[in-house]
């Protein structure tokens, strides 16, 4: 396997997973992207890449964890919405404070099934398979919690979006107030 090495990484629509990997006693990340055959190695732990993605999108990670807790009651291994407008929703495999914690994009997962020798196999929408040492039950639970969180966030945002759309229509029609 040929792995490209980078010192930084910017999250995009093609980002499927941030896999924690230890090399020479320090933690880095194998980034899997849709349509790219080989992963990219970034010399930054996955949790830090998630945090950087939040900052890039003008958010703070702590605020998003609080959102999942308040909306859905999730206290542990909460999914996160890095950007609601870009549909960047990720969930952790372990506690985010655990250096072995990897993160998966909810949008890219087609199926999760039990792996042959324990753990689970993640099937991505581009047909790629990734076997990881996390049980099928935990991965399915995280997938479902992320779907619940996405739905709850959408229910919160939808009325605001509708109001903004109506205001924009009135403005185009020449009405300053409706």
Approximately what portion of the residues adopt beta-strand conformation?
25-35%
Q: Structural class of the secondary structure composition?
A: alpha+beta
The rounded distance between the terminal residues' Cα atoms is 61 Å
Number of strands: 10
Number of helices: 3
The residue-averaged pLDDT reads 83
Radius of gyration: 18 Å
> What kind of sheet is the major sheet?
7 strands, mixed
Assembly status: single chain
Strand order of the largest sheet: 1-4-3-2-7-6-5
Estimate percent helicity.
25-40%
What are the low-pLDDT stretches, counting only 5+ consecutive residues below 50?
Answer: none
Order of helices and strands: EEEEHHEEEEEEH
Shape: globular
Give an account of the 3D structure.
The protein has three helices and ten strands. The protein has helices at 46-56, 61-72, 136-172; strands at 4-6, 15-23, 26-33, 40-42, 80-83, 88-92, 103-105, 109-114, 120-124, 129-132. It has a seven-stranded mixed sheet with strand order 1-4-3-2-7-6-5, with helices on both faces. A three-stranded antiparallel sheet has the order 8-9-10, covered by helices on one side. The longest helix is centred in the C-terminal third of the chain and has 37 residues, at 136-172.
Short description:
The chain contains three helices and ten strands. It has helices spanning 46-56, 61-72, 136-172, and strands at 4-6, 15-23, 26-33, 40-42, 80-83, 88-92, 103-105, 109-114, 120-124, 129-132.
Please render the helix and strand layout as text:
Blueprint: E1 4-6, E2 15-23, E3 26-33, E4 40-42, H1 46-56, H2 61-72, E5 80-83, E6 88-92, E7 103-105, E8 109-114, E9 120-124, E10 129-132, H3 136-172
């Amino acid at each position: 396997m040929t792995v490209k090495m980078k010192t930084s990484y910017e999250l995009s629509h093609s980002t499927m997973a941030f896999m924690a990997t230890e090399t020479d006693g320090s933690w880095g990340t194998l980034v899997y992207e849709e349509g790219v055959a080989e992963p990219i190695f970034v010399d930054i732990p996955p949790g830090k890449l998630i945090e950087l993605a939040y900052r890039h999108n003008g958010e703070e990670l702590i605020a998003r964890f609080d959102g999942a807790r308040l909306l859905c009651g999730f206290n542990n291994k909460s999914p996160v919405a890095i950007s609601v407008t870009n549909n960047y929703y990720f969930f952790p495999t372990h506690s985010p404070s655990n250096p072995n914690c990897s993160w998966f994009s909810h949008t890219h997962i087609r199926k999760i099934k039990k792996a042959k020798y324990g753990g689970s196999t993640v099937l991505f929408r581009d047909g790629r398979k990734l076997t990881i040492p996390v049980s099928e039950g935990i991965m399915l639970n995280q997938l479902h919690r992320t779907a619940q969180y996405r739905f709850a966030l959408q229910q919160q945002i939808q009325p605001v979006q509708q109001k903004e759309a109506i205001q924009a229509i009135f403005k185009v029609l020449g009405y300053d107030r409706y």
